[in-house]
Amino acid sequence: MKPTGTDPRILSLAAEVAKSPEQNVPVILLKLKEIINSTPLGSSELKKVKQDIYCYDLIQYCLLVLSQDCSRIQGGWTTISQLTQILSHCCVGLEPGEDGEEFYKELLPSAAENFLVLGRRLQTCFINAAKGEEKDKLLHFFQIVTDSLFWLLGGHIQLIQNVLQSDHFLHLLQTDNVQIGATVMSLLQNILQINSGDLLKIEGKTLHSILDEILFKLLSTPSPVIRSIATKLLLVLAESHQEILILLRLSACYKGLTSLLNKQETMTEFSRELRQLVDLLTPKIHQEVEEQKLHKAACLIQAYWKGFQTRKRLKKLPSAVIALQRSFRSKRTKTLLELNRQKEEEELRLRLQLQKQRAMRLSRESRLSMLEIVHPGQVEKYNREMEEKSALIIQKHWRGYRERKNFRQQKPSLTEYKAAVILQRAVLKFLAKCRKKNNLFTSWHGLQELSDARRVELKQQVDDYVRRHPGSQMSDVASRELHAQTQERLQHYFMGRAIEERAQQHREALMAQISTNIEQLMKAPSLKEAEGKEPEHFLSRSRPVAAKAKQAHLTTLKHIQAPWWKKLEELGDEIDVPKDELSIELGTLFIGGTKPP
């Protein structure tokens, strides 16, 4: 349901997006940035604006644009980077209301996945770019996309697990480019600062891949920035999560990690964090023995649990096979039904096509037979009449389609207008009741008494006004003449008004009579269905009209009963049928003559 009190800018923008072609939609959506920036941060007005943007599907339009190819979008990567900022700002702080499940389970994961896909595309374009200026622009757009992703994850931390498990994020992390790698490592560091616990919730294979990539960048990358970020990441993970620390110490994959870390350069900016990491990975001997015992115990528990799970799965294997067979048969049945339906649709389409061809052939044959009957001198006239009829039919269908389309477009605005009128009427009625209630309970305080000084002041003002505006002097004779003229004009006005009222009443009576006759004619049965004296009710009271209708009726009957060869123009002299009588309208033919004496 659309919210009430929507910002008119959002309404106009949504209407413009709906009416504009697809290639202009991305540029139109950029106007959302001005609307969001013009609203104060953290205010309830901003929340209302975001809710309106979501309710009018503008966020979904942004997602659709981001999923398109960059070369087809006007403005290229500049437009896409700005749309990512708009999408992240609209999603953070948004309260979807009734559509919360769709928003959190479908829209937000799709937005995060689109950001990662855009990052991979920018990474590919950056690597393939030849000019340094172009590379700087692409790097700037890549940073905007990563910042938008981080802003989205900061507002919805439940998406962090989805991002860490994504293959696109792992590909971004495995890049060999220094600048892209530094940006992605900074993004990972910021994500883990928000909630590092989600790293343990992902699959073990993905966790190993992320740790391997961080260690590879620490040990093999010459860039000190990336090495510093990788060191800080490993130190935070080892200090925050005991499971990762045990994995780095005891796993066979990371055997010899401590010796490799000791060989790193000590005179660097991150030497202190590197030393802390080495100290964490080289515990005392008794701690290592204890951890080995705990590891063996965990392996034993896992072995028992995996054996139990395997035995349980084997017991359920027959039912699983039956379910698999049922699913396969159901799918095969659906496939056969779909093939039969497509075959029936194809047969129906061919049958309809044959019917159309047969109808067209019959139409052409009937037209040729009519041309054979019609005299050669009348062929051109006949063709012209057929063209006019065809044009009228096409115009009728086109106008009907156009009016229905306009009505569908105007229906929402008409509904809103009616709703506004109802609300205004209710508010005005409520205010009138309130005023009436207040007037009823308002006590009468009386008039304020005038003091002597006030009376003297008012008398002085009256005397001054009379002195400044003296009255005109008129004799008694002039007054009587003016009175007589006034009475005469007043009498003339009242007489004219009475005549006009009688004429108006006569016109209204005639209009009522005409309306009654039209209603009777519309509800009248056909001549075949008429029974008894029903046709007598429609006899005209005007003798000239009745005589004309009767003459036209007899002329038409005479023309209809004549043979066809007498209707041709070259034999028209034998039949005296005036053209005016043949073109008489249906209403004139329907009204019969007066009842004969």
Automatic annotation (TrEMBL):
<keyword id="KW-0206">Cytoskeleton</keyword>
<feature type="coiled-coil region">
    <location>
        <begin position="336"/>
        <end position="365"/>
    </location>
</feature>
<dbReference type="GO" id="GO:0032391">
    <property type="term" value="C:photoreceptor connecting cilium"/>
</dbReference>
<dbReference type="GO" id="GO:0045494">
    <property type="term" value="P:photoreceptor cell maintenance"/>
</dbReference>
<dbReference type="GO" id="GO:0030674">
    <property type="term" value="F:protein-macromolecule adaptor activity"/>
</dbReference>
<dbReference type="GO" id="GO:0061824">
    <property type="term" value="P:cytosolic ciliogenesis"/>
</dbReference>
<dbReference type="GO" id="GO:0005516">
    <property type="term" value="F:calmodulin binding"/>
</dbReference>
<dbReference type="GO" id="GO:0048496">
    <property type="term" value="P:maintenance of animal organ identity"/>
</dbReference>
<dbReference type="InterPro" id="IPR028765">
    <property type="entry name" value="IQCB1"/>
</dbReference>
<dbReference type="GO" id="GO:0005813">
    <property type="term" value="C:centrosome"/>
</dbReference>
<keyword id="KW-0677">Repeat</keyword>
<dbReference type="GO" id="GO:0019899">
    <property type="term" value="F:enzyme binding"/>
</dbReference>
<dbReference type="InterPro" id="IPR000048">
    <property type="entry name" value="IQ_motif_EF-hand-BS"/>
</dbReference>
<protein>
    <recommendedName>
        <fullName>IQ calmodulin-binding motif-containing protein 1</fullName>
    </recommendedName>
</protein>
<comment type="function">
    <text>Involved in ciliogenesis. The function in an early step in cilia formation depends on its association with CEP290/NPHP6. Involved in regulation of the BBSome complex integrity, specifically for presence of BBS2 and BBS5 in the complex, and in ciliary targeting of selected BBSome cargos. May play a role in controlling entry of the BBSome complex to cilia possibly implicating CEP290/NPHP6.</text>
</comment>
<keyword id="KW-0970">Cilium biogenesis/degradation</keyword>
<dbReference type="Pfam" id="PF00612">
    <property type="entry name" value="IQ"/>
</dbReference>
<keyword id="KW-0112">Calmodulin-binding</keyword>
<keyword id="KW-0175">Coiled coil</keyword>
<dbReference type="GO" id="GO:0062063">
    <property type="term" value="F:BBSome binding"/>
</dbReference>
<keyword id="KW-0963">Cytoplasm</keyword>
<dbReference type="InterPro" id="IPR027417">
    <property type="entry name" value="P-loop_NTPase"/>
</dbReference>
<dbReference type="GO" id="GO:0001750">
    <property type="term" value="C:photoreceptor outer segment"/>
</dbReference>
